[in-house]
Amino acid sequence: MPWSNQNGNGGGGPWGGGDKNNGSNGDNGGPWGNGPKRPSNGGGNQPPDLEDIIRQGQDRLRKAIPGGGGRGTNGAFIVLLILGALVLYAMQAFYQVDTDERAVELLFGKPKQELSQPGLHFHFWPIETVEKVKIVEKQVAIGAGTSRSGSTGLMLSGDQNIVDVQFAVLYSVISPQDYLFNVSRPDDVVRQVSESAMREIVGRRPAQDVFRDNRAAIAEDVRTSMQTTLDSYGAGIQVNTVSIEDAAPPREVADAFEEVQRAEQDEDRFREEANQYSNQKLGAARGEAAQIREEASGYATRVVQEAQGEAARFISIYEQYKLAPEVTRKRLFLETMEGVLRDSNKIIMDKNGNGVVPYLPLPEVQNRRTDGGNN
């Protein structure tokens, strides 16, 4: 060491003093007097070597680090670096799929056919990557202002009227692979396809159908057209519902449309009143016609039955006439004369034309008899 007495001189180290045998003064030691002495071959106390102390500390550090620690602290740093790399790799290799999601693993950018269901999964990162898709029902709203694509709900109907249609589309993902890789920005594609389908269907129909009469049929036609278009794109999307929330004319012509609506309502009201009046008159006429038909039928039945009765009576008389012609002829004559003379004014006269009672006021007697019968 630098402070060791290599030459046997009296110059001591920081703790030791000079050798008394060399004639030096004992006060030439260190500040604390004579320090520890290194053992020597010749015996006696010598100070310990500092290199031995450092070497022993390094040996203890190697034993404390697993695997011996390499060379000093470099081994510990390498171990910590490896552990950190393993943690980072595990964070990239393991992924979590939520209940409302499905995941698609890609091997060198090519999607696999299998879907990752909800739960914890492992993949060989970085040669494999993961894309996640929400499978819950999504909604896109059109109209009610300007959409993100810059278009509005203003559309031209089949009768050349402008209508402002507000509608919503509910859709869900049924094929995550197609949804992710067949179309670019599939949500924007749904918006654009819905606007195009609605404009096409509205352009075929009059504005009145959109306003009141046939909204449900229009919504169903739009849904069918959207599904056909998305299937042709292979978008992996299913359109669940299309609902027309509101349809109104533009604000600039709203008053004119309201006037037209009121006129159409008045027309419907007048037509309904006319139908009611027509039904009332037609019902009464049909009732009277039915009554007349019933009366005519009753009259025809009565006349036919009377005629049949008279015919039967005549046949019965004829049968009696064949049995006794003279008696029957006389009886018929008497009955006929009785019927003729019963209600007629009669004056009895003799052969010479003189009345039996020439001055009797027969008309007055007859009138009195008739008045008496009425009373």
TrEMBL record:
<comment type="subunit">
    <text>HflC and HflK may interact to form a multimeric complex.</text>
</comment>
<feature type="transmembrane region" description="Helical">
    <location>
        <begin position="75"/>
        <end position="95"/>
    </location>
</feature>
<dbReference type="GO" id="GO:0008233">
    <property type="term" value="F:peptidase activity"/>
</dbReference>
<keyword id="KW-0812">Transmembrane</keyword>
<keyword id="KW-0472">Membrane</keyword>
<dbReference type="InterPro" id="IPR010201">
    <property type="entry name" value="HflK"/>
</dbReference>
<keyword id="KW-1133">Transmembrane helix</keyword>
<protein>
    <recommendedName>
        <fullName>Protein HflK</fullName>
    </recommendedName>
</protein>
<dbReference type="InterPro" id="IPR020980">
    <property type="entry name" value="Membrane_HflK_N"/>
</dbReference>
<comment type="function">
    <text>HflC and HflK could encode or regulate a protease.</text>
</comment>
<dbReference type="InterPro" id="IPR001107">
    <property type="entry name" value="Band_7"/>
</dbReference>
<dbReference type="InterPro" id="IPR036013">
    <property type="entry name" value="Band_7/SPFH_dom_sf"/>
</dbReference>
<feature type="coiled-coil region">
    <location>
        <begin position="253"/>
        <end position="280"/>
    </location>
</feature>
<dbReference type="Pfam" id="PF12221">
    <property type="entry name" value="HflK_N"/>
</dbReference>
<keyword id="KW-0645">Protease</keyword>
<feature type="compositionally biased region" description="Gly residues">
    <location>
        <begin position="8"/>
        <end position="33"/>
    </location>
</feature>
<keyword id="KW-0378">Hydrolase</keyword>
<dbReference type="GO" id="GO:0006508">
    <property type="term" value="P:proteolysis"/>
</dbReference>
<feature type="domain" description="Band 7">
    <location>
        <begin position="92"/>
        <end position="261"/>
    </location>
</feature>
<dbReference type="InterPro" id="IPR050710">
    <property type="entry name" value="Band7/mec-2_domain"/>
</dbReference>
<comment type="similarity">
    <text>Belongs to the band 7/mec-2 family. HflK subfamily.</text>
</comment>
<feature type="region of interest" description="Disordered">
    <location>
        <begin position="1"/>
        <end position="51"/>
    </location>
</feature>
<dbReference type="Pfam" id="PF01145">
    <property type="entry name" value="Band_7"/>
</dbReference>
<keyword id="KW-0175">Coiled coil</keyword>
